[in-house]
């Protein structure tokens, strides 16, 4: 199968959907003439004149306009160059987009996608490196997606564009230019369905974003010692594929959740609580968290590297759970 | 003067015994010859009589406990005698000066192996607890291999596997344990070879009806086998190291289902006993076996075993040789079968199928076959 | 004001009637609030009726409005279902938002009421989105955004007006400057005298008008709507007015200087139009009384409907969080 980057996969998803539906437009900073800070929208302005809007640096208006357009029947995809910038737009994303179907008693459908690059790894320090998936996942009314491969990014973005709910789509920045298999033919991936990236029997590792490939590397290493690790990527943070995770833990009896975002009040806590509620009797070791430290992301490359889980951190906790 | 009652050694091989029942309670009067307690050894359960009269002042070993022979198990003395000196005499005994008369001794209780200390919580994962709950496993009996000694599922599985033979929580001990050990050792050590043939039982059955005393087919087999063994002493042997010991006596064991396990009481010098004597002795031994009252002497010294499962309708079966013997005869049911006579006539005859198993290290096939032929001849042409 | 001559008697009496509907609606709410039949955050627009009615008189059904926490009047003027609105304010199952939105989230998508917004300033961005939607679809429709003087100081206002001007979007921003943001007077929150002067800095026309003069509102908004409809971009209109009952129902209004309310009551926008209708012999007193009575009856019917409507059921708590196919 052909190999393309996640940025190319995102570009294809947008292009394919915009070709099919003239009712879709995209807006954001640097997305038109420049083709996106990370090339995700390259060539789209030329192909879809009037439907690709370079905006001023106005995150609040970007989100408000995307929501307002979606509320009136146009499918909008807004891009935030860095998820950190979406803080400025949070009023529209959360107070408007997330809540309006409910507070309007079901009168609204909001087909809007808020795309944003996410996470650390490029020495861009605290205001350009944060992982915000749980901030958004905490909000009823939003769907939150975080792909870890080009294949998942494409299939899920296409599903997100055609979903009539507001979707926050987090793209791990360091994965933009990593290649992965993506078929030529069209496909979508249902929102809310996790993926078993590697089957195993001894321990379940739930990982998102960049942590998926790190967990897979650990699984590969431990397999040589006869330790069988199951790696699950929920892909959708909300709604979470609880069923998949619970079934896996019922099989393995051990759960480790790995994410880049800080540990405290993180996704791991939520997933572990769900497993406690639904599979307590199946646990054969205390569930563990492997998560980013509770610090803003630092500039220094070595410190930045240490701020989020490394393969050895994941490995150590997997081993500990098997003791 | 007060005396210690010791656990008696009731056979050459007996090293320990389990007190299964105290027939007297503390404070109760005991006469010489009274049954004091019952013990179970690796072979049998037997009663132990009091050798002196007095009051059973103290039971030192509780029911269910297994202790080495000669361990003090009780104190008999007069009612108001000071027994504190005796209380301190046994290795396993601790004294408790302030102990009220007749109360249990906590010192001994605490030393019981396997009992979990009450104040320490058992660490176990929910998965391990769930499995233990489902399988009825007491987690206090399991050593945890997880972090901080936490019991994990694998520990419970291992425990279950190790105790799969005792699903009803019956420890593998006593008779069952010795059967298991003996038979597995026999099957492993002795290359068994089997010889099956049919025996016409018509004469035996006719005789059985004519006799004025009660006799079973087993008795006929013991009778015939014992005579054949006298004729073929090379069958009546034990392999001991580099030597093949030919036994002077012909002692035929009878496999008996004693309810809680197989037991093989022995009819000593069977070759010298009449059918009637054999029948009488067999009746008595089976009765004792079922009541668990065989004494050590009654189950030792066998040189050959007869195992008859004919009464259960089994046509034929093979048996494992009962060590240290070298041969065993497995007897199936006597049933009416079509038999072609030497003359070529087809007749209906009562026939038993028997299978002789021999230890091929010490008994050759031809010898075994001739022995079996002799047994057959004795039975088909029996005359007392 | 020549605009008066361009309006027919039917249009004028409709405006008069609509303003009475709004006032009756709001004043009934004050009563219902005291009876605890309506509750929560409640902001009424008595005294500001001319802006809602004058502006919306220029709009088609397919045009849209985005309003603020003080939005009952705008929704009524745009044609939102009165009964559904009243039921919503009484938190009933038959309310426009099934009793889950309330005063600050009134919506009626069927007539282009895109929803009231409880967050001050948020509506500006949403209006840009609605206008963008019209533009992308090639529809000749307009979005009118109502907000207060408080919203004019939010970042959203600035970002949205810049973006609307940049893309020449069909949107009319109407700032109802009623003198107070909650209890903070306009002078204490804003250095400039007129919000409309900000329009120039975004590259759009801006004007300040008397919000209690319905003719002025009608004419100014009409021009802005037409400009937007023709693709010439947005306009910022500052309509100066006054809210009679303070920020929220129960506001003691201690921040008001004595006599201020009384002076504004003399500039009652309804009375202004009534005088005009009588003075110009467009209506006789009986007709005026008849219009008032009809408005009162319409509100009474809406109230009857709302009071007869059931409470939401517990299961309704969980519906409408997500759209599900």
From TrEMBL, chain A:
* Top-tier EC class: oxidoreductase
Domain Transketolase-like pyrimidine-binding positions = 4-178
Report the EC number(s), separated by commas if there are several.
Answer: 1.2.4.4
Question: Does Cytoplasm count among this protein's keywords?
Answer: no
Cofactor dependence: thiamine diphosphate
Q: InterPro entries in the record, alphabetically?
A: THDP-binding, Transketo_C/PFOR_II, Transketolase-like_Pyr-bd, Transketolase_C
Q: Which UniProt keywords apply?
A: Oxidoreductase, Thiamine pyrophosphate
Q: What is this protein called?
A: 2-oxoisovalerate dehydrogenase subunit beta
| UniProt organism field | Moorella mulderi DSM 14980
Automatic annotation (TrEMBL), chain B:
Keywords from UniProt, A to Z, are:
Acyltransferase, Lipoyl, Pyruvate, Transferase
Necessary cofactors:
(R)-lipoate
Could you tell me one molecular function GO term of this UniProt entry? acyltransferase activity
One Gene Ontology biological process: pyruvate decarboxylation to acetyl-CoA
Query: Keyword rRNA-binding, does the record have it?
Result: no
- Pfam families documented for this protein: 2-oxoacid_dh, Biotin_lipoyl, E3_binding
Where, by residue number, does the polypeptide cross the bilayer?
none
Region annotated Disordered sits at 90-121
Q: What is this protein called?
A: Dihydrolipoamide acetyltransferase component of pyruvate dehydrogenase complex
From TrEMBL, chain C:
EC supergroup of this enzyme: oxidoreductase
Q: Which Gene3D superfamilies match?
A: 3.40.50.970
Where in the sequence is the signal peptide annotated? none
**GO molecular function list:** pyruvate dehydrogenase (acetyl-transferring) activity
**CDD domains per UniProt:** TPP_E1_PDC_ADC_BCADC (cd02000)
The record's EC number reads 1.1.1.-
- Keyword set, alphabetical order: Oxidoreductase, Thiamine pyrophosphate
Entry cofactors: thiamine diphosphate
Tell me the superkingdom of the source.
Bacteria
This one is known as Acetoin:2,6-dichlorophenolindophenol oxidoreductase subunit alpha
Query: Organism, per UniProt?
Result: Moorella mulderi DSM 14980
């Amino acid at each position: 199968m052909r190999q393309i980057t996640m940025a190319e996969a995102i570009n294809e998803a947008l292009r394919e959907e915009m070709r099919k539906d003239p009712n879709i437009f995209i807006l954001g900073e640097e997305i038109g003439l420049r083709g996106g800070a990370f090339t995700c929208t390259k060539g789209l302005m030329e192909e879809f004149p009037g439907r690709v809007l370079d905006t001023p640096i106005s995150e609040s208006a970007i989100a408000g306009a995307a929501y307002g357009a979606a509320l009136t029947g146009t499918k909008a995809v807004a891009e935030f160059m860095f998820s950190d910038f979406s803080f400025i737009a949070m009023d529209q994303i959360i107070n408007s987009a997330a809540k309006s179907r409910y507070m309007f008693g079901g009168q609204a459908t909001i087909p809007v996608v808020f795309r944003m690059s996410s996470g650390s790894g490029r020495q861009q320090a605290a205001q350009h490196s944060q992982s915000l998936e749980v901030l958004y996942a905490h909000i009823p009314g939003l769907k939150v997606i975080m792909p870890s491969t080009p294949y998942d990014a494409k299939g899920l973005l296409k599903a997100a564009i055609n979903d009539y709910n507001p979707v926050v789509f987090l793209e791990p920045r360091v994965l933009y230019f990593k290649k992965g298999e993506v078929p030529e033919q069209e496909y979508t991936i249902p929102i809310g369905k996790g993926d078993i990236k590697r089957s195993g029997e001894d321990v379940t590792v739930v990982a998102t974003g960049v942590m998926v490939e790190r967990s897979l590397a650990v699984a590969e290493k431990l397999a040589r010692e006869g330790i069988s690790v199951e790696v699950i990527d929920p892909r959708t943070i909300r709604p979470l594929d609880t069923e998949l995770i619970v079934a896996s833990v019922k099989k393995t009896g051990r759960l480790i959740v790995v994410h880049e975002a800080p540990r405290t009040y993180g996704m791991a806590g939520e997933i572990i609580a769900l497993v406690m509620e639904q599979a307590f009797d199946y646990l054969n070791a205390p569930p563990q968290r492997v998560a980013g430290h509770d610090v803003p992301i630092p500039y220094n490359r070595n410190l930045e590297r240490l701020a989020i889980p490394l393969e050895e951190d994941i490995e150590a906790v997997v081993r500990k759970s098997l003791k | 003067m007060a005396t210690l009652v010791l656990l008696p050694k009731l056979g050459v091989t007996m090293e320990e015994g389990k007190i299964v029942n105290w027939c007297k309670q503390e404070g109760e009067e005991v006469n010489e010859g009274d049954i004091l307690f019952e013990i179970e050894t690796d072979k049998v359960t037997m009663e132990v009589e009091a050798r002196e009269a007095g009051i059973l002042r103290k039971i030192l070993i509780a029911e269910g406990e297994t202790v080495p022979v000669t361990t003090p198990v009780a104190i008999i003395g007069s009612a108001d005698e000071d027994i504190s000196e005796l209380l301190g005499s046994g290795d396993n005994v601790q004294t408790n000066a302030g102990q009220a008369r007749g109360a249990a001794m906590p010192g001994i209780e605490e030393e019981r192996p396997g009992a979990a200390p009450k104040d320490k919580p058992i660490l176990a994962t929910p998965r391990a607890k769930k499995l233990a709950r489902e399988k009825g496993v007491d987690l206090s009996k399991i050593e945890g291999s997880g972090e901080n000694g936490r019991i994990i599922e694998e520990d419970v599985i291992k425990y279950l596997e190790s105790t799969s033979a005792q699903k009803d929580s019956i420890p593998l001990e006593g008779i069952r344990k010795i059967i298991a050990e003996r038979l597995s050792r026999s099957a492993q050590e002795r290359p068994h070879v089997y010889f099956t043939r049919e025996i016409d039982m018509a004469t035996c059955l006719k005789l059985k009806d004519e006799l004025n005393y009660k006799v079973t087919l087993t008795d006929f087999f013991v009778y015939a086998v014992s005579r054949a063994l006298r004729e073929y002493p090379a069958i009546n042997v034990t392999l001991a190291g580099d030597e093949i010991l030919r036994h002077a006596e012909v002692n035929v064991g009878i496999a008996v289902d004693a309810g809680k396990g197989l037991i093989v009481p022995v009819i000593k010098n069977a070759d010298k006993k009449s059918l009637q004597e054999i029948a009488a002795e067999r009746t008595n031994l089976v009765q004792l076996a079922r009541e668990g009252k065989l004494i050590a002497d009654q189950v030792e010294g066998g040189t050959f075993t007869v195992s008859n499962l004919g009464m259960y309708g089994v046509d034929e079966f093979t048996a494992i040789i009962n060590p240290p013997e070298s041969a065993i005869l497995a007897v199936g049911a006597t049933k009416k079968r079509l038999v072609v006579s030497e003359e070529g006539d087809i007749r209906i005859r009562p026939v038993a199928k028997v299978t002789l198993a021999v230890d091929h290290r010490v008994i050759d096939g031809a010898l075994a076959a001739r022995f079996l032929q002799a047994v057959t001849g004795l039975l088909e042409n029996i005359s007392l | 004001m020549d605009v008066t001559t361009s309006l027919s008697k039917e249009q004028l009496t409709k405006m008069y009637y609509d303003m009475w509907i709004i006032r009756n609606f709001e004043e009934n709410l004050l009563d219902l609030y005291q009876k605890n039949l309506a509750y929560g955050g409640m902001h009424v627009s008595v005294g500001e009726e001319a802006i809602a009615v004058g502006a919306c008189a220029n709009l088609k059904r397919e045009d849209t409005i985005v309003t603020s926490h003080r939005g009952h009047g705008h929704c009524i003027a745009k044609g939102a279902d009165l009964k559904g609105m009243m039921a919503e304010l009484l938190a009933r199952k038959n309310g426009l938002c099934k009793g889950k939105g309330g005063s600050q989230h009134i919506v009626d998508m069927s007539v282009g009421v895109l929803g009231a917004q409880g967050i001050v300033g948020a509506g500006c961005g949403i209006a840009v989105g609605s206008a963008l939607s019209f533009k992308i679809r090639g529809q000749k429709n307009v979005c009118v955004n109502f907000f207060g003087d408080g919203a004019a100081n939010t970042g959203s206002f600035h970002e949205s007006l810049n973006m609307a001007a940049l893309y020449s979007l069909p949107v009319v921003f109407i700032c109802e400057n009623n003198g107070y943001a909650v209890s903070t007077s306009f002078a204490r929150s804003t250095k400039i005298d007129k919000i409309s002067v900000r329009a120039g800095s975004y590259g759009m026309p801006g004007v300040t008008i008397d919000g209690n003069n319905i003719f002025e509102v009608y004419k100014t908004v009409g021009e802005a709507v037409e400009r937007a409809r023709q693709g010439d971009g947005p306009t910022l209109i500052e309509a100066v007015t006054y809210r009679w009952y303070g920020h929220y129902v129960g506001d003691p209004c201690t921040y008001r200087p004595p006599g201020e309310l009384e002076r504004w009551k003399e500039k009652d926008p309804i009375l202004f139009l009534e005088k005009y209708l009588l003075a110009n012999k467009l209506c006789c007193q009986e007709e005026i009384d008849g219009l008032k009575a009809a408005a009162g009856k319409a509100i009474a019917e809406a109230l009857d409907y709302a009071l007869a409507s059931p409470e939401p059921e517990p299961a309704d708590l969980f519906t409408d969080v997500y759209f599900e196919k």
